[in-house]
Amino acid sequence: MNIILLSGGSGKRLWPLSNDVRSKQFIKLFKENDNYESMVQRVYRQITSVDSEAKITIATSKSQASAIKNQLGERASICVEPCRRDTFPAIVLAAVYLHDELGIEENEAVVVCPVDPYVENTYYEAVKELQRLAQQGNVNLTLMGIEPTYPSEKYGYIIPQNENVVSKVKEFKEKPDVETAKKYLDKAALWNAGIFAFKLGYLLKKAHELIAFEDYKDLFNKYDTLTKISFDYAVVEKENSIQVLRYSGDWKDVGTWNMMSEVMADKTKGKVILDETCENTNVVNELNIPILCMGCKDMIVAASGDGILISDKERSGYMKPYVERIETDAMYAEKSWGTYTVIDVQPGSMTVKISMKPGEHMSYHMHNYREEVWTVVSGKGKAMVDGMEQILRTGDVITLAAGCKHTVEAITALDMIEVQLGEELDVGDKIKFPIE
Questions:
Q1: Judgement on whether residues 38 and 125 belong to the same structural domain of the protein
Q2: Which residue range(s) make up the domain with 424?
Q3: Are 216 and 274 part of one and the same domain?
Q4: Which of 63, 95, 89 is nearest to 77 (CA)?
């Protein structure tokens, strides 16, 4: 299978654990063999268990690329969007990347899926069938529709011509009210979950009809000029040669804490105590202090360096406009080399814990406006400062002046405390260089 996984999201709906650089698909709340795993790790594991030869490409924003590399390593290819332009430009960029950079032929079928539904392996077996149907070439587009379990207002609907497992599509409907949704269900309607397959050449032809570009590099360079439009509006709803595969297995959109609480591996994670009177309450604590809950019923409590949420489960689905009023920088981020956790912020200083994985290294870079002081807490590493190498061991302290080129490589697992000093502590104050 050739699969494009769409990994986006602004990080608002599972606040405070999610933020602009750690969307819900990177939060480790599931388990496999007693080890916590994230949504993106779970999805990758499921796809490769169904098809060990699957070629997986993740289309994502620049802010999420490091988290994907941290969690999957080099196992999946990543197509990075320079900025967010909605699903049509994202899918086109990924399709052109598959053709120009990975050498996928135009006659090969490609499946596009979101990265964040909670499903069983039967879903990816259906995805494999979707790819097979697209490869036959009987129609231009093949969708997978989810058989509804209730008349939902949250999803658009696909109205098929009949109730067969595979049917031509009669029409599409926007998100309805409940009463209208009930009428759609009487027509054997399916939820439109944004899952579709096509031959690569079909989409490349569509892309060139709607966007003027030469190749992948040209498209990448002009990406910020592209019109923001969804794949449904740009392609699906204008296509006449289209069919839908009915999927009747388990499928959950875990876009809210209420839904996440139904599928997360444990009722609590982190330093948490629930007294015996608590009922239907889930707590996730990423802080290094305990949380005690007493008499809590039907509640979600989530705590991280970004903030604390205390909410009725049902009410948690309406938190987005309130979270948008909270203006704070992300206090935790996954990097390709490890994790970055802000401990303290003061005028003129910021203290950060850096945890690096063995064998990983930062980019060789410098800052114009800040000085940094590294203190090695544990492990062994190798620093390069203005071309000079230095071995780092537990207890070592190294001071890096503004304008000084530097990097560090973790020989073993390496933990450091980094104190940034300066009047301008801006994430954009970073210039990268090739290693000398």
A1: yes
A2: 337-433
A3: no
A4: 95
Tell me whether residue 331 is in a domain. no
Q: Which residues of 238-269 are buried (b: 16+ CB within 10 A; e: fewer)?
A: ebeebbbbbbeeebebbbbbbbbbeebeeebb
Neighbouring C-alpha atoms within 13 Å toward the C-beta of 2: 20
Closest C-alpha among 358, 325, 329 to residue 341: 329
| Per-residue pLDDT at 64 | 85
Segments in the chain below pLDDT 50:
none
Which residues have C-beta within 8 Å of that of residue 212, sequence separation ≥ 6?
Answer: none
Return the pLDDT at 330: 78
Chain segment 19-50, per-residue pLDDT in tens: 777 888 899 999 998 899 999 999 999 999 99
95 and 213 share one domain: yes
Is-contact 355 335, C-beta < 8 A? no
The model carries a pTM of 0.86
Q: Are 24 and 254 in contact (CB under 8 A)?
A: yes
Q: Is residue 61 part of a domain?
A: yes
Residue 215, classified by CB atoms within 10 Å of its CB into exposed (0-12), middle (13-18) or buried (19+), is exposed
CATH number, position 396? 2.60.120.10
What whole-number distance in Å separates Cα of residue 29 and Cα of residue 268?
10
Distance CA 237, CA 30 (A): 35
Same domain, 89 and 18: yes
169/73 same-domain check: yes
Task: Specify whether 144 is located in the same domain as 28.
Answer: yes
Q: Are 140 and 242 in contact (CB under 8 A)?
A: yes
pLDDT digits (tens, 9 = 90+) for 81-111: 998 888 999 999 999 999 999 999 999 999 9
Q: Which two tokens stand for residue 307?
A: 């903030």
